[in-house]
Amino acid sequence: MLLTVFILACFVGFYVVLKVTPALHAPLMSVTNAISSVIIIAAFGFVAYGLMPQTSTTCLVLGLLAVFLTSINIVGGFMITKRMLSMFSKKKKEK
After folding, report:
1. Contact, 77 vs 36, CB < 8 A?
2. Residue 67 clears pLDDT 80, i.e. is over it
């Protein structure tokens, strides 16, 4: 059942982002960066829990993987946002 919910959420997310106009991509990336910052805090919690002696290494591996993937998402989001905002900035005229 959880796999079905995950697959449906992927389809809904894909079609929602597909319908966003280009002018709203920068604000959308800002929101996804905020969500990713919350996710990375939870991933740090998994890493800390995985470092405890009574837990398996699965928690540690999944936590490290989540930190890695979320940091890629955050950095990529900021790069895209910077690129989108540079499209709207006024360029200096050369004399």
Report:
1. yes
2. yes
